[in-house]
Amino acid sequence: MLAKWMMKLSGPFRRSIRNKLILTMIGLAVVPIVAITALAAENTRRSMEAEVISTNLSNMKWTGVYLGDQFAQLNNLIYTVLISPHLSDYLANAEEASLSSQFTAQRNITDTLTNLFYSAGNHVVGVELYLKEYNKLFTINASQSNIESPAAIPAPYKLLFDQNKDFMITTDSTDGTKFQLIRSINRFENQEKLGGISLQIRWGVLDQTLDLLGRGNEHTVFIAGADGRVLYQPWGSAPAAVTLHRIAGTSETQGYFRSDHEYVFYNTIDPVGLKLVTVIPNSFINKSALATMNFGLIIGAVSVVVAILLAVILAWRLATPIVSLARSIQGFGMMKEREVRLSNRVDEIGLLETKLDQMSHRIREHIRTEYLISLEKKSAELKALQAQINPHFLQNTLQMIGSMLFKNSPAESYGVIRSLSDMFRYIIREPEDLAPLRAELNHLNNYMQIQQQRFAVRLNYSLEVDEETLGSFIPKLSLQPIVENAFFHGLEPQEGPWELEVQVARAGEDTVITIRDNGVGIEPDRLAELQGRLTRRSGELWTHGERIGLSNVASRIHLHFGDSYGIRVESTERQGTTVTVTIPL
């Protein structure tokens, strides 16, 4: 019974293309608008989320840089004591000197610490110097200037010695608004810990820099130690224990993670190793996107009504030519008639399906065959082109390494070996033909590190890169052959100093890589012949001539990106050569 009613209701739509088109057009118009309206609200929230993430990562980066500068300045204050001749004299002669000499030496150290205290600014509220061997603790602050012999090693210095650290930051146990910056005093010969110097500093000195992160009502900002423990929190609610645990477990210097209720951004403060943390609740992003979401829902409702009206009008107008086409196709036939696929439809579209099935099948097979033949041809040419590019300087590099092992330090020899290893790892282990420009430049830098070791006296190399271009893709092993060509044909025959400059810049929607040298240049006839090779069509495989590497690079760029991209060479005899590579941004 139900099937009978379904057939009766669907009958007008099964027999008439016009009714089907009207119903289909309404569905196609309304459903996407409803879906897009729903997605627009979510996309608005995601856009706000992406903006908040991007802004906070940038703010965290620069705030971390400024905080690092502040801690570096505090470190420099301690270094003024470490390099003081008074401290060196006291450590060297304290036991052998007379009482008067010892008194003078202690007074000199006290004067040095006092000068440090009064020159450091209001944020430094105390200076201490502890010498373990002589059990002397020098204390300078606003209320006292004292030298004593404590009964036991003071707690901060004992922790410094027990953990064998050179540097440590601890929060003042009696006053949470202050912290101690402690650095050990080491013996030069064996790095034995002789004592330590500490500055007692107000955390408030960092508030002006932390203001760069913004003081949102719902934001929480704090500085944590490497173990995740909160050292200083200028504003915001107390962070959850699970948040502190995840911060302690992060190995990246900068980043963020999202929990169920909040976004947590963190950045490591160099050189002290503390972590700067900002916590933003999810509700902050949802509130920001709410107004835009409401406006989108209103626009979506209006769009649905308009879409229904347009769908009915368009469906009616489209149906008329389809019906006429169905009537005119009655006598259509095909060569080599094959078994016809019968359609389950009984309307005009069913007739079109039956008549056109064989033709579309044969056309698809023909296109597929032609496409596969073309693809196999291009793939074979590309593999042949790529196989021709190999490093030509391996023998010279190995000979240089052998020489360096006898004359240079192990670190310098290892640097060359590491560069060579990275080069061949890049060549062997990366199967893709296209590589990010960042990876290709790293490969070039490894090559140039070896060349600079070989020609350190003569070679002056510079690299200038626009960060926007590093995401571009370039055929793998494109830049090294060009630079290698510059050495072989341009610089090596040139007397005097060598200049090699590589610039990477954005030009509209393209990335332009310029390689210049001050070599002997190229003769006009040879230059014209080379320029002719580099502008040939991409389907041709070049395996002749003196510059196979350069021609191969040009061919691969043509194959991947089309004839509008490639290589251009300009040269003047005795003045140098410029090679310009253009690829899509």
From TrEMBL:
Swiss-Prot/TrEMBL keywords: ATP-binding, Kinase, Membrane, Nucleotide-binding, Transferase, Transmembrane, Transmembrane helix, Two-component regulatory system
PROSITE patterns: HIS_KIN (PS50109)
Catalysed reactions, as listed in the record: ATP + protein L-histidine = ADP + protein N-phospho-L-histidine
UniProt-listed Pfam families: HATPase_c (PF02518), His_kinase (PF06580)
Transmembrane annotation, as ranges: 295-319
Stored SUPFAM superfamilies: ATPase domain of HSP90 chaperone/DNA topoisomerase II/histidine kinase
Domain Histidine kinase residues, every copy: 479-585
A GO molecular-function descriptor: ATP binding
GO CC term (a single one): membrane
Domain of life per record: Bacteria
Keyword ATP-binding: yes
Record carries keyword ATP-binding: yes
EC number: 2.7.13.3
Full protein name: histidine kinase
Source organism: Paenibacillus graminis
